[in-house]
Amino acid sequence: MSDKHTIMTLSEQNSLLHFDKENVWHPYTSMSEPLPSYLVESAQGVYINLASGEQLIDGMSSWWSVLHGYNHPKLNTALQQQAGKMSHVMFGGLTHESAINLCEKLIRLTPEGLDKVFLSDSGSVSVEVAMKMALQYQHAKAEINQQTLTKTKLLTVKNGYHGDTFAAMSVCDPVTGMHQIFEQVLMQHYFAPAPSIKFGEEWSNDDVSELSALFAAHHEEIAAFIIEPIVQGTGGMRFYHPEYLKVCRQLCDKHDVLLIVDEIATGFGRTGKLFACEWAGINPDIMCLGKTLTGGYITLAATLCTTHIAQTISEGAAGCFMHGPTFMGNALACAVANASIDLLIENDWQAQVQAIETILTTQLSPLAAHHRVEDVRILGSIGAIECRQSVNVANIQKRFVELGVWIRPFGKLIYIIPPLIINEKQLMSLANAITVVLEEDSCFINN
Ligand code: PMP
After folding, report:
1. CA nearest neighbour of 393 among 379, 405, 404, 409
2. Count of alpha carbons within 13 angstroms of residue 149, beta-carbon side
3. Which residues contact 10 (CB under 8 A, 6 or more apart)?
4. Coil/strand/helix, residue 48
């Protein structure tokens, strides 16, 4: 342990951590028996500096969001310059250069046809917005055509994750998404089996037979189909065959169903394409973006849709889309998002992702032979090791910290998704730490 970053005394640290433990909710953490939290003092580049003195190489990009590292001078400057002008103004009746520039960039970079942008606060909210857009579109369309509205449900696949708010939760996997707790209040949608043919495996149409049958049987009730393109992230870092997504597009076209792709985790280069739906060469009707949008600096999300959807909604009796968050188009968030996207292009993100993928492949693939490992999966800057046992989160986390890395496994998965600026030596340290913990019984639960 070194004290080079520490400015807090041990008693100050303990008092903060005590209050945190007693009073502060953490994600998916019990309040009565909380998992330990580590106090962060600062972060710089790929390093997270703990108040206790340890410097950790970040393998998580703060849940997939950091691209260019922490405390980046260009991102800091963008924030400071924007704060010097204004941090926020309401977006009703007012607009500003940072939001306009960001929307222009998003329209230019995303697949063709996505020409209208709705800015919102977080990934989950952007999914709420996407679902509402699809439902309001179908409502307006029925109204304009003087037909009875029947398309009021969504179709999705099992094992998906789209956020924690209610509409988003209703299209998360029914088991891991905790549908049983909220059964009485959740909207009911249709679920197809999860895609089973892996990225890189041989394609067979068998993988879409149940999905096709569900479309055929229920298309009159289905407003939209929502899916995470290529990577089912929270559902276990499963990478599926691009052909599956192509067929989804065809089925949506055939049955007059809108296609929503949730690129919140996969957007901005993570999988080796700027957007994961490019692997299948498809253009969605609606796309959700979040996480990396601001390079991990501030929460911001965007829902993009086609002109046809926007026009239909606007021609309905409501005359507008019924959503308008207070912090819509927040200027600080838009300014830093613009700077982050500029950096992505400047830094040659493709070369960065390719370099990470090559090292992950050499370092992690051999672990597939380990007795504790079920599977190793690598795509772009994502490396996932599926173990045969669940991890003991508290113990494995403690060991990772001792080994100088920040990796947060869940369930049976140890995965890394580092900031794109990580170098070879730092990546090797992450891989070495994983190799070490795989040898340690205390890091796993016997099940
Ligand atoms: N969709 C996907 C695919 C995600 O991975 C996440 C976040 N893990 C969300 C939606 C929700 O985003 P947020 O946590 O910003 O609400």
Report:
1. 409
2. 15
3. none
4. strand
Residue whose structure tokens are 């977006």: 91
Q: Which residues line ligand 1 (CB under 6 A)?
A: 122-124, 127, 161-163, 228, 233-234, 262, 264-265, 290
Distance between CA atoms of residues 264 and 65, nearest Å: 9
| 262 catalytically annotated | yes
CA of 266 to the centre of ligand 1 (A): 10
Smallest Cα–Cα separation from 245: which of 256, 258, 261, 266?
261
Tell me the residue type at 350: Q
207 counts as catalytic: no
Which secondary structure element, helix H or strand E, spans residue 262, and what is its range? strand 258-262
Ligand 1 geometric centre to CA of 168 (Å): 9
Q: pLDDT digits over 281-303, tens only?
A: 999 999 999 999 999 999 999 99
Query: Could you report the per-residue pLDDT of 35-93, keeping only the tens digit for each?
Result: 899 999 999 999 999 999 999 999 999 999 999 999 999 999 999 999 999 999 999 99
Can you tell me the distance from the alpha carbon of 161 to that of 262, in angstroms, rounded to the nearest whole number?
Answer: 9
DSSP symbols for 272-334: SSSSGGGGGT---SEEEE-GGGGTTSS--EEEEEEHHHHHHHHHSTT-S-S---TTTT-HHHH
User: Kind of pairing, strands 382-387 and 258-262?
Assistant: unpaired
Counting ligand 1 atoms within 8 A of each CB, the residue from 60, 119, 124 with the most, and so the one to mutate, is: 124
Whether 342 sits among the annotated catalytic residues: the reply is: no
Do the beta carbons of residue 172 and residue 128 sit within 8 Å? Answer: no
Q: Global pTM?
A: 0.96
What residue has token string 């949506």? 252
Told to judge if 161 belongs to the known catalytic residues of this protein, a careful annotator would answer yes
Domains located in the chain, CATH noted = 3-68+348-445 (3.90.1150.10), 76-346 (3.40.640.10)
